[in-house]
Each structure stands twice: as structure tokens, then as C-alpha cells.
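FW: tagging you since you asked about this chain on Friday. Here's the raw sequence from the shared folder, copied in full. Didn't touch anything.
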Amino acid sequence: MLNRFFDLAAKGTTVRTEVLAGFTTFLTMAYIIAVNPAILSQTGMPVAGVAAATCFCAAFASILMGLVANYPLALAPGMGLNAYFTYTVVLGMGVSWRVALGCVFLSGLGFLFLTLVGLRRLIVEAIPKQLFAALSGGIGLFIALIGLKSANIIVNSPVLGLALGDLTKPSVCVALFGLMVMAALEIRRIKGAVLIGILASTGLALLIGATRLSFSAYDLSALSATAFQLDIPGALGLKGGKAIGLFEIVFIFLFVDVFDNIGTLAAVTKRAGLTAPDGSIPRLNRILAADSAAALVGAMAGTSTVVSYVESAAGVSVGGRTGLTAIVVGLLFLAAAFVAPLAQIIPAAATAPALIMVGAMMMMPLAEIEWKNPLLALPAFLTFALIPLTYSIANGLAAGVTSMAVLKLVAGRLKRSDALLVGLAVLFVLRFVYLGSH
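HL: got it, structure written out here
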């Protein structure tokens, strides 16, 4: 039955291989169970509720992807978007986390609309691929900076802005220990390196008294603390006083999700040999529909945007070729929901090295940028640099798109196909003008 439903034989795989691939993918991305609550809890969201929501959404989304699209793509709340949710939208703009969840829901509706009418492809084609790479690198550095500050490896300085922290503090030592464990395991290509590093540094923190065991009663009702708490009317009622309001927040959630999804799809399907001879991705609309549904369910459950994970490539590397791999990942996340509240005992010093490690791994696409070409290099650099320096994905993306359009104009290289790029640049210029006047 499984062979017929997933077409295993035609794709050169077996049930055993798919199950092994599912376990491999799960181990490489299970760190999100601890890291996502650590980030979102800074908005006031309950840790246990976010942990349960993280597991539930990852389970639902991965199983849906496997059943609907038959691809070995696993999904979970996205790194980078959870940071944007916390540090820019809630802490930076002063938007409540319930309203922010409403914005995530609206972005999911937008993603679904773009998929159904075909506009998504046009937007993707309008943005040069080098900006995709810069966006990934910028978000990676943004995540790594958050990790470095969370671990107190980097601290605020009244003179320099940022400075090196006290590396002899117990919490800093725990973070550095975790980072070295993760790096050593990655070098040896051991699956689950990030998760093992989090557990190892948590163990060290317990030994030296940097965290305490807390055994509180728990059942799946903890999910009710975040489930259906989104405030859609509040999101629709955002005013200009909240930076630029609803449009910017929803647009960034939507925009980053679109490109993150495309980048992951391209990387995973190419590695799995699942692309068509012309380079296209079969059943693309099914993949995107599943991703859209995942974002909607994630907002309702109580977490930031759910996205396809590039860690899916780990499962592909051991033979995963069908949706059965994704379903196995989903079932493992569902099982993990029963122990998710243990995330409460994991200190920031243990999750911080995971942020640094994941951020470092997101630097790889920067090698794809043609740095010798100033028409591409400057917009890519502005995108990459301004995201972490301004704590805003929106600022980096706006600077990259706007400078690209301006440089093409002054160089006389604007084409009719650049109309959408210019349109986006105009919107971003208006955004900068608005922010400058408030």
C-alpha cells in the first residue's frame, strides 16, 4: 500500500530507507523544539505553550506535505522569522504577540492567494537571485548576533555600541562549550549535532548550577495557552504609530516565507534528483498550498511562520525521496509534543550556541554572489549588512531591492521585465520616507 501511494519503487527507495531518512531529518531539526520557545517567550508567550505549538505545527505541516505533495520536505517554525516576530514586531514596534500572530495568519492567506493566482512566481522572478543569497546570509548573521548577545559573549557598550563580554562567566562558558560540541559533531558529520549540543550544554548548566530542574504538571492542554489566541481584528486595526503598520509586517512575513520556501525547494529537490529535465519542480502548486496551510495553522496554534526546512536535505542524503520521509518526521514531532515542556529547563546559554551555529550555516549562499560585479555586490551587501545592524529584515530587504533598481536605472540596464522590481522599490522608498517623518 505504501509503495503504491508514495510510488516508492519508481523513485528507487524503500519503506526502510524512508523511515531512516525521516529519523535523520528529525534529528537535524529537533533543536527548534527548544530554540523556538526560547525566542518567542521573550514576547510574553508561555514557554510550554509555544513548545507544544512548535511540535504540533511541525507534525501537522510535515504530514500534510507528505500526503499532499509527496515530497521529503519537513516543516517547522522558521528561524529568522521567529526572531523578526519577537525582536522587530513585538519588542521593536510594540505590537502584542496576539496581534503579531494575527499578522502571521494574514500573511498565510496572502501566500495562499499568490499561489492560487500565480503572482508568486512573478515576484520571485523579479528579484535577482543574488538578493536571495544575501537575504539568507543577512538573516543568518541576525540570528547569530541574537545568539551571541543571549549568551553574553557580546554585550551592549555605552561607548562602542557592542563589546566583548566577560568570557569567564559561567553562562558564557556553557554557551562556548555547547558551540564547540556542535561544531565538533558537525565536522564529524554526526546527525543531530545541534540538538546534542543543546542537551550537552544544558547538562553542564545543571552541573554548575546555571539552571534548575523544574518538574511541573503537564499535559497537551498547555497548547491552549497559545492556541487560537491570535488577534486578527487587532492586526487589521494597526495604525501608523506601529512603524508602518499592518502592511510592512504582513509583507515581510509573506516575502521572507516565499523566498525561504523557494530556496529550500530548489536545494532539496535538486539534491534528491526530483526536478524535471527543464529544471522545474513537479507538483509545485501542491507544495506551496501545503506550505500556506502550514502558516495558517501555525498562527492559530500559536507560533511564528511555519516554513520548509533546508535540514530536509539531511534525510535526502540518506535516501529519502518521497512524502513518507516527511510523514515520519511529523510523527516524531507529534511524539515529542509530550516532552516538549522540558524546554523550560533549557537555559538561554544552551540555546544561544544553536542560534550561532544555525546562523553560521546560513552563510553558505553568500558564495553564490558575484562580488566582482558592483551592480550585484552593493545591493547584496546592503541587504546582508543592514538586517543584523538594524535588527530588521525589512530594512535590509528594502535597501537591497531599492539600490538594485536605482543602479539598474543609472547604468541603463532596466528592462521591461524589471517593472515589478521597480514597483517594489518605489514602495520601499515610500516606506523610508514614512519612517523618516515619524
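FW: The chain has one domain: 2-436.
HL: agreed, and Confidence is low (pLDDT under 50) at residues 240-244.
FW: great, closing this out.
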